[in-house]
Specification:
Layout lengths: L2 H33 L8 E8 L5 E5 L4 E2 L5 H13 L4 E9 L2 E5 L9 H7 L5 H12 L4 E2 L3 E4 L34 E7 L8 E5 L6 E4 L2 E2 L8 E4 L5 E5 L1 E2 L3 E6 L3 H15 L3 E2 L3 E3 L14 E9 H9 L4 H15 L11 H14 L7 E2 L11 E3 H12 L4 H6 L8 H4 L12 E8 L2 E9 L5 E9 L4 H15 L2
Parallel strand pairs: 5-7, 6-16, 7-17, 10-13, 11-14
Antiparallel strand pairs: 1-2, 1-23, 3-20, 4-5, 4-18, 8-9, 8-15, 12-13, 19-20, 21-22, 22-23
Length: 481
């Protein structure tokens, strides 16, 4: 190589570094200006933006500070699940005859009877039970002479996380987590106004006797709806309250989801002409090693791909999906030799922690409490999340992970009308997050020069204006060229 050629090559390299440095400095200056606004003076931040091509940060602000991530916790949980379970993992709920008993063996599937999936497939949420009824009839079985046996022991029986706000236990996002789940472990109450001053009419969906309903909700001739429903803790006694002017649907969580699953199943079988003479009982059917017993006559297996669960967790921010994932990780990774262990939040935390350790996240930059981010006890840094995002960008299941995130056209970003500008089309896939005083936004974006970035913006103590600030930061990246 001639001396002139060496000098020219060196000049190109230095110019490239200079351009990259200028690009980074310009972007940093723009973001610094946004953060300097007086509306954000009392807000705590943890921010990092990493260019995926080089792996180097182009902006950081207290990136190692740990804050509650809210639903951005799901980015970590779903990544750990894809890495630990594999993208081909399938939840299998088994229906079988064992002698005279009809048994159902749960796999912790959070999407059995999922209304969103049923709508996409043009099915009823009870189709899973309709299929079981059809298979039993094919075998000539119209009477179950034994018991209805429920094996939901894939998970432990701590169904409501101890760090979740107990006063929100009625809300769909705080649904109990069990080895058998149905309709997001909620009852849907469909309210219809009648005459002013009279009680509203209501329907329960799915139709079931599992809960006891008391109606104290009255019809009004004007004004907005104030109607709501509450459930006594530890029971399925639900009361509909306040006033209703327009038709409304209210989602109320139920207690003991596995019994709810089994009750709706029995009611569906009965409507199909199949009766059960025995009782509903809970007992393990699988062996200690997780194997099915010899002689079990499998009637139907309901399967849900891990990919679908991850989509519902990230794109739609379904907390139940994320919590089922962390407990499933605990069950799979927490095995003691050949013995099957019930998945728990404790064993799930250990599995997620092991994943973060493996990808090089500093131990002091995370504290895992639940899988969804509903717990205020979770603590992670922006650097922790960007490490997860960078790792998953190079993962064998990267497309599954990437496509599970919300976009301006689908999921929580679309629902909140965020990033609607034309220049954002096809440029952002992200996860939103919100609990009291905490707002977050993390994911991937692409700038005008087709450079790809992983970003994480965690905040605490802000206001409604904080959401706009986070969006503006990402838009600065997208518009950079």
């Amino acid at each position: 190589m001639t001396r002139l050629r060496v000098l020219l090559l060196g000049l190109v390299v230095h110019l490239s570094i200079f351009v990259a440095a200028g690009h980074s400095a310009s972007l940093s200056g723009s973001i610094d200006s946004l953060l300097a606004g007086k509306d954000h003076a009392k807000t705590s931040f943890s921010i990092q933006i990493v260019e995926l091509g080089s792996g180097k940060p182009v902006f950081s602000r207290d990136e190692s500070r740990t804050l509650a991530p809210a639903s951005n916790m799901k980015l970590i949980t779903t990544a750990a699940a894809l890495d630990g379970l594999g993208e081909d993992f399938v939840f299998e709920t088994i229906f079988a005859m064992q002698g005279d008993d009809l048994v159902v063996i749960g796999a912790g599937d959070p999407l059995t009877g999922d209304g969103r999936l049923a709508g996409v497939r043009d099915e009823s949420i009870a189709d899973i039970f309709e299929r079981v009824a059809a298979e039993l009839k094919k075998r000539g079985i119209e009477v179950i002479k034994g018991d209805m046996v429920v094996d939901a022991f894939i998970f432990d029986d701590e169904r409501f996380h101890p760090s979740w706000p107990i006063d929100q236990s009625n809300k769909w996002y705080a649904a109990e987590v069990a080895g058998l789940n149905f309709n997001s472990n909620c009852l849907d109450l469909i309210l219809e106004p009648t005459w002013p001053g009279e009680l509203v009419k209501y329907e329960v969906f799915p139709k079931t006797s599992y809960a006891s309903l008391t109606n104290k909700c009255k019809t009004t001739s004007k004004g907005s709806n104030t109607s709501w429903a509450s459930r006594e803790i530890g029971t399925n006694n639900i009361t509909i309250r306040a006033n209703c002017h327009r038709a409304q649907t209210i989602n109320v969580t139920i207690d003991r989801p596995s019994a709810f699953f089994a009750t709706v199943m029995c009611e569906t079988l009965l409507r199909n002409g199949i009766s059960i003479e025995g009782r509903m009982v809970g007992r393990p059917v699988r062996g200690d090693d997780g194997s099915l017993p010899v002689g079990l006559d499998v009637v139907h297996v309901h399967k849900t791909d891990l990919k679908l669960v991850i989509n519902r967790a990230n794109r739609d921010s379904l907390n139940l999906a994320a919590e089922a994932l962390i407990k499933t990780l605990g069950a799979v990774k927490g095995r003691s030799g050949s013995r099957l262990e019930a998945g728990s939040w404790s064993s799930g935390r250990a599995a997620v922690g092991a994943f973060l350790d493996k990808i090089g996240v500093v131990a002091g930059q995370y504290k895992i409490d639940d899988g969804s981010g509903l717990s205020k006890e979770n603590r992670v840094s922006a650097e922790c999340i960007t490490k997860v995002l960078v790792y998953m960008a190079g993962h064998g299941a990267s497309e599954v992970y990437f496509s599970s995130l919300a976009t301006p056209e689908a999921g929580t970003l679309a629902k909140a009308n965020r990033f609607e500008e034309d220049f954002c089309d096809g440029k952002i896939n992200a996860k939103t997050g919100y609990i009291n005083n905490t707002r977050s936004l993390s994911g991937y974006c692409v700038d005008g020069g087709d450079r790809r970035y992983a970003f994480s913006i965690l905040t605490y103590g802000g206001s409604w204006k904080t959401k706009g600030l986070m969006d503006s930061i990402v838009k600065k990246v997208i518009q950079n060229d």
